[in-house]
C-alpha cells in the first residue's frame, strides 16, 4: 500500500458544543482505535486525548480522540486508492488505516473519521478496489461485461494488503460470471461470501436479436430446401 502522511492534534474537549466548534473551524473529529489492551480497573496514566473503552472480560482498549484539518484528508478520502497512514500527534507517529467515515446526509461534508492503529503482526480487514483486465470471449460474442462488486473485503497483514485486486476476464463466456470463491491468493483472504458475483458477461438485446435472426435464417433455408425437394419427389411418384 501507499503511505499517507497526516498530522493531528489531541482533542481535549468533548460534547456537542465542542464538536460543532471543531467543524466550524474546518476541522474533523477523529478517533484512533486499536490501542493498547489494559486490565480494568486501569491505574495507569493516560495521555492527552486518550480514554479507556471497555471491551469485556475485564479488559479495556486505549483509544485516542484527535482533530485533523479537513483539507489535510481530502486526498486520503476522495480517491480510489487505499493507504497506510503515518499518523503523527503529540510527538509520536503510529501506523493506521481508515476504518470508517461519517458524512453529513445533506451537504456530504465529513463529520467524523475512525482510524485503526495497525501493527506488523496483526491482520486487518479493508475494502480493496477491484480492477478488471482483458477482453472477455462473451463480449466478443455480443455480450456486455458488468462489474457487480467494486470493492472486496480483504483480510491481511497491512504490509501484504494489495493496492487493488486485478482479475483477468479473457475466458469469461456469455452468461458466465466470476464469484469470490473462484479467486485464491497466497498472502490475503477475501471475506465476502464465496457465492457473491464479482463480475460477469450478460446477454444483450442485440445478441438475442442476432441469435433470433440466425435461427430464423436457418429455418427459412430449411423450408426452401424442402420446397425444392417436393416437386422432384412428386415427379418421381408420378412416373
Jot down its keywords.
239 residues; alpha+beta; Ribosomal Protein L25, Chain P; RNA Polymerase Alpha Subunit, Chain A, domain 2; 2 domains; nine-stranded mixed sheet; four-stranded mixed sheet; 4 helices; 16 strands; disordered C terminus
| Secondary structure: number of strands | 16
Query: Rounded to an integer, what's the Rg over CA atoms?
Result: 30 Å
How far is the N terminus from the C terminus?
A: 87 Å
Order of helices and strands: EEHEEEEHEEEEHEEEEEEH
pLDDT below 50 for ≥5 consecutive residues: which ranges? 234-239
The CATH architecture name of the largest domain reads Beta Barrel
- The proportion of strand residues reads 35-45%
Total tally of structural domains? 2
Could you name the CATH topology of the largest domain? Answer: Ribosomal Protein L25, Chain P
CATH class division of the largest domain: Mainly Beta
CATH superfamily of the largest domain: Ribosomal Protein L25, Chain P
Mean pLDDT: 88
Structural class comes to alpha+beta
Amino acid at each position: 500500500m501507499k503511505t499517507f502522511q497526516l498530522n493531528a492534534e489531541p482533542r481535549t474537549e468533548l460534547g456537542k458544543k465542542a464538536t460543532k466548534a471543531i467543524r466550524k473551524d474546518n476541522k474533523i473529529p477523529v478517533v484512533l482505535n486499536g490501542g493498547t489492551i489494559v486490565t480494568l480497573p486501569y491505574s495507569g496514566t493516560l495521555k492527552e486525548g486518550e480514554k479507556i473503552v471497555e471491551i469485556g472480560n475485564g479488559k479495556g482498549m486505549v483509544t485516542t480522540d484527535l482533530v485533523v484539518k479537513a483539507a489535510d484528508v481530502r486526498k486520503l478520502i476522495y480517491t480510489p486508492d487505499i493507504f497506510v497512514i503515518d499518523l503523527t500527534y503529540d510527538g509520536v507517529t503510529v501506523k493506521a488505516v481508515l476504518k470508517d467515515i461519517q458524512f453529513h446526509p445533506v451537504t456530504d461534508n465529513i463529520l467524523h473519521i475512525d482510524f485503526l492503529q495497525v501493527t506488523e503482526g496483526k491482520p486487518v480487514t479493508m475494502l480493496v478496489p477491484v480492477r478488471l483486465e482483458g477482453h472477455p470471449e462473451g463480449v466478443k460474442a455480443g455480450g456486455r461485461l458488468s462489474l457487480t462488486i467494486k470493492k472486496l473485503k480483504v483480510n491481511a497483514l497491512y504490509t501484504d494488503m494489495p493496492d487493488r485486486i486485478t482479475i483477468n476476464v479473457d475466458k469469461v463466456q456469455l452468461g458466465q460470471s466470476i464469484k469470490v470463491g473462484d479467486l485464491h491468493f497466497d498472502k490475503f483472504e477475501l471475506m465476502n461470501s464465496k457465492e457473491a458475483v464479482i463480475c460477469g458477461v450478460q446477454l444483450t438485446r442485440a445478441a438475442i436479436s442476432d441469435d433470433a435472426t440466425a435461427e430464423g435464417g436457418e429455418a427459412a433455408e430449411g423450408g426452401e430446401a424442402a420446397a425444392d425437394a417436393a416437386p422432384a419427389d412428386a415427379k418421381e411418384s408420378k412416373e
